[in-house]
Specification:
With 404 residues, the chain is of the alpha+beta class. It has 3 domains: 128 residues, no CATH class; 188 residues, Jelly Rolls (Sandwich), CATH 2.60.120.1440; 70 residues, 3-Layer(bab) Sandwich (Phage tail protein beta-alpha-beta fold), CATH 3.55.50.30. Helix content is 27%, strand content 31%. A hairpin with a 5-residue loop joins strand 8 and strand 9. It is globular and about 60 Å long. GO terms for molecular function: sigma factor antagonist activity. Pfam families: FecR (PF04773), FecR_C (PF16344). Keywords: Membrane, Transmembrane, Transmembrane helix.
Length: 404
């Protein structure tokens, strides 16, 4: 692969997976403006579509190619992603392959690949990405603030790639793909006090970081992670607020502990998600791989893969086998995913991701919704899903009002 193709592949996939910086988006659209790159861009879109089909095939090969070619040959991009509703069911469904592909084409303007008026069309697509549309809200993205042990703050979304700071002997770097990485230096004294750092995401933000032991953490909107720049002693301890997904590096001699509220989640090496927003009615810990011990003053128990621990305010911890792990971690994959969810639950997620206020006029709809859609769509497109089930709304000045 040539250096140009490698760069194009990186830019495309960074945008597709919502990790591209604004500078990388601008560079990508400059490449789109050049008709010489049509073949490479078309190949990337085909590859993205084929990946979706491989992960969760919805159509036979012939039907899949007919649909994709129809999208690529259209003269204007689709304005939104529409759900397909099964008859006689009070549920909302989306065909995930179409939704995910449309996510690329709506934000990307793939129609410009064959449109003779490419430059003009691309300028309109780029303007949609940069400008907040009237009576609508753009989705969140990679936004976070790093607070160092000395109190200095670094805005990560605007910080340049490379070395950001030295915490003790830990080197703090921002990688080209937008991650924050801690690398332990040499000659770290065991007696030196740990430098505690904090990464905080705002409403409308998310971020990924790699701790100095190799553990990976994804932070959802309105969340924070406090951690030592270098792990020392008998345990690896961190503390979170909000929601985080962990892939913990194995180290049997040094257990990994996550403190959240008055509860401790202890692991050796595993994958799990913790959701502990103050405005939710319960804290939920969902285990995908390995084993987890969860405990507080009243309870101690072990989770098996696929199980979820639910802790409601002032109540006992309950372990259930009925939770769907895919639902719990869909946010990490860039998806809103609901299963028999009430409108209030959905709107709490929307409020955090789009950084909006939500209010209800009249009686709150009692319907339950099941469906999924990319988190990369505008707020109106998410709400458009719900409109198919009779939920009306209006969006004004970063305020979503659910109407009767």
């Amino acid at each position: 692969m040539s250096a140009f193709n490698a760069r194009l592949n990186y830019l495309f996939n960074s945008y597709y997976h919502q990790t591209a910086t604004q500078q990388e988006r601008d560079e990508l659209f400059e490449i789109i403006n050049s008709s010489a790159n049509d073949a490479e861009l078309t190949a990337l879109i085909h590859e993205a579509w084929n990946t979706l089909q491989a992960d969760e095939p919805l159509f036979d090969a012939a039907k899949s190619m007919d649909m994709l070619n129809g999208i690529l040959q259209s003269k204007s991009p689709p304005d939104s992603i529409h759900p397909i509703r099964p008859p006689n069911k009070n549920q909302l469904w989306l065909k995930v392959g179409v939704a995910a592909a449309m996510m690329v084409f709506v934000g990307f303007g793939a129609y410009v690949l064959i449109n003779q008026h490419k430059n003009a069309a691309n300028k309109r697509a780029q303007a949609r990405l940069k400008a907040v549309p009237a009576h609508d809200v753009l989705p969140g993205g990679n936004k976070a603030v790093l607070t160092l042990a000395n109190g200095k703050t670094i805005t990560l979304d605007s910080a340049k790639n490379g070395l950001l700071a030295n915490e003790g002997t830990a080197h703090v770097k921002k990688t080209h793909d937008g991650q924050l990485v801690y690398e332990a230096g040499k000659n770290e004294s065991a007696d030196a006090p740990a430098a505690i750092n904090t990464v905080s995401t705002p409403r409308g933000g998310q971020y990924q970081l790699v701790l100095n032991d190799g553990s990976k953490v994804w932070l959802n909107s309105a969340s924070s992670l406090s951690f030592p720049a270098v792990f020392k002693g008998a345990t690896r301890e961190v503390e979170i607020t909000g929601e985080a997904y962990f892939e913990v590096a194995k180290n049997a001699k040094m257990p990994f502990k996550v403190k959240v509220n008055n509860t401790v989640v202890e692991v050796l090496g595993t994958h799990f998600n913790i959701m502990a927003y103050n405005d939710e009615d319960a804290m939920k810990t969902t285990l995908l791989e390995g084993s987890v011990k969860i405990s507080n003053k009243q309870f101690s128990g072990l989770l098996k893969p696929g199980q979820q621990a639910v802790l409601r305010q002032n109540g006992p911890i309950k372990i259930t086998d009925e939770a769907d792990a895919d639902d719990a971690v869909a946010w990490k994959e860039g998806i809103f995913q609901f299963r028999d969810a009430g409108i209030e639950t959905i709107m709490r997620q929307a409020a955090r991701w789009y950084d909006v206020q939500v209010s209800f006029v009249g009686k709150i709809p009692e319907k339950e919704f099941t469906g999924r859609i990319s988190r990369n769509v505008k707020a109106s497109e998410l709400m458009g899903m719900l409109k198919y089930m009779g939920v009306n709304f209006k969006i004004e000045d970063k305020h979503i009002t659910v109407l009767p």
